[in-house]
Design a protein that fits this description.
By secondary structure, the chain is α/β, with parallel strands linked by helices. Helices cover about 30% and strands about 20% of the residues. It contains five helices and nine strands; from the N terminus they run H-E-E-E-H-E-E-E-H-E-H-E-H-E. Helix 4 links the parallel strand 7 and strand 8.
């Protein structure tokens, strides 16, 4: 067939710089953090598979759909921690568990360094790389567990997480 039903037309616009994958996914995590309902830390997370497809998103908030949010009720505190809030990373993992989605060899973009319990859950779920922005409560044992389990940990700099031009 020599006649085509289409033609390729080059744009005359200046080519813009696209966001890197790291910028793209971290910018989504930052938007998700805006949904957090616990003002002690506004955290967002995005889990991505090896094809750079988003498989889960999460943010800090109360458990279930009927539990009051910290924004509404106030914080439920024990030993200096709000125990009403489910962390963004666990919200992602719980969604995947409920829906039967494998996290094997995936990566997570999270606005804050994961706490110790989230680190353990991320390791157990099969996540291989953790990208984060904020060194919030950096835990030395969490770092040790990541090292022992060969989890790549990447702190993104603010300029690496902002939009491209």
């Amino acid at each position: 067939m020599t006649n085509k039903s289409y033609e390729i037309v080059k744009s005359n616009k200046i080519k813009r710089k696209r966001q890197s994958w790291n910028q793209y996914f971290m910018s989504i995590a930052k938007v998700l953090a805006l949904r957090s309902s616990c003002d002690r830390a506004y955290v967002g997370a995005v889990i991505v598979n090896t094809d750079n497809r988003i498989i889960a998103t999460g943010y800090n908030g109360s458990v279930g759909s009927k539990t009051p949010q910290c924004d509404d009720l106030g914080h439920v505190m024990r030993d200096g921690h709000c125990i009403a809030t489910l962390h963004a990373e666990i919200n992602c993992i719980a969604y995947c568990a409920r829906e039967g989605i494998s996290l094997k060899d995936s990566k997570i973009y999270v606005t804050h360094f994961p706490c110790l319990n989230c680190t353990k859950a991320l390791i157990q779920s099969g996540i291989k790389t953790i990208y984060y922005l904020d060194d919030y409560r950096l835990d030395d044992y969490a770092l040790e567990l990541m090292h022992i389990n060969h989890i790549e940990t990447v702190k993104l700099l603010p300029e690496e997480s902002s939009a491209g031009e």
